[in-house]
Amino acid sequence: MKHAFFCTLYSIVFFHFYVKDEKNTFFMLFFSPLEQFTIISLIPMHIGNFYFSFTNSSLFMCLATGLFMLLCMLVTVHGGTLIPTPWQSFIEMVYEFVVSLVSEQIGEKGKQYFPMLFTLFTFLLCSNLIGMIPYSFTTTSHFVVTFGLSVSVFIAVTIIGFQIHGLHFFSFLLPPGAPLVLAPFLVVIELVSYGFRAISLGVRLFANMMAGHTLVKILSGFAWSMLSLGGVLKLAAGIPFAVVFALMFLEVGVACLQAYVFTILTCIYLNDAIHLH
After folding, report:
1. What is the per-residue pLDDT for 269?
2. Is residue 85 part of a domain?
3. Please, which residues bridge with residue 29 across strands?
4. What's the CA gap between 261 and 208, in Å, rounded?
5. Fewer C-beta within 10 Å: the chain N or C terminus?
6. Burial of 25 (0-12, 13-18, 19+ CB in 10 A)
7. Looking at the domain assignment, is residue 154 inside a domain?
8. In angstroms, how far is the first alpha carbon of the chain from the final one?
């Protein structure tokens, strides 16, 4: 009982299974649930102390971009069909979804930014969904990727704001009708709040994707441990397995939702830059 208790408790942190060697001696192999986020260098490249290696993260980012582009090309190569195929219906649904999102959040002036927002949404959607495939890699589970995207969006929105309004863009730092006595405090608060947009976008996406995948891996290890130990625990192993399957469906929903949240927040930030208060 003591052995079973400690193995079950340990599986919360490590995913392990039993292996039998030539002498029929059982031993355990331990795998961390964070192992799935390991960056592996596939093609090492460096110039001096600067490394530009092509990693598994780079590979799956290329796959996420290439697969959707290939799908769009195959669907629209002959201009589409009057009666859409299932894949054509999917592409049209995604297209119309982003169009309605831009129209509702930004308005007519936001149509010129539709290509950027459509590319952003489809890239995040494909990256998140590809990460749900076993033995694949979730690029959006790394903060360096999501932070790079959020900083790029932040810089683009800021440049657009200055292009449209010039130095008047700084007026967003002082809400209309605010008393002048509070102006120094409000300017600092608004400036810090605006700067944190570059971080919050990336942290939200990274945290949700990493937490969900880690939870699935921990519960999978917990279920496998119960199944390996046998006895009463083997009969009860179906419960965590059922929870894992339920979490997998939940993770698919989270993958789609996070792509939507990132895109709609980008639309809101663009709207704030285009239409100053």
Report:
1. 92
2. no
3. 17
4. 11
5. N
6. exposed
7. yes
8. 66
- List, in order, residues 6 or more apart from 135 with CB less than 8 Å away: none
Tokens (6 digits) for 122: 């489809």
Neighbours of 108 (CB within 10 A): 8
| Closest by CA position to 85, among listed 95, 96, 74 | 74
Helix (H, G, I), strand (E, B) or coil at 207: helix
* Total domains in the fold of the chain: 1
Cα separation, 104 vs 161, whole angstroms: 19
112-150 tens-digit pLDDT: 899 999 999 999 999 999 888 877 888 888 888 899 999
| pLDDT at residue number 20 | 40
Total-model pTM: 0.78
Q: What is the pLDDT of residue 157?
A: 93
Spell out, as residue ranges, where the chain has pLDDT lower than 70.
1-34, 78-80, 223, 226-238, 277
Name the maximum alpha-carbon separation found in the chain. Answer: 82
Residue 205 lies in a domain: yes
Please report the pLDDT score of residue 33 as a whole number.
Answer: 64
Tokens of 66: 């290439």
- DSSP H helical segments within 34-167, as ranges? 56-76, 86-105, 114-130, 143-165
Structural domain includes residue 186 = yes
Considering only CA atoms, which of 259, 61, 268, 269 is closest in space to residue 156?
A: 269
How many helices and strands in the chain, by DSSP H and E?
9, 6
Site of tokens 């944190």: 196
**Tens-digit pLDDT profile for residues 138-148:** 888 888 889 99
**Domain with 139 in it:** 95-274
pLDDT at 38: 78
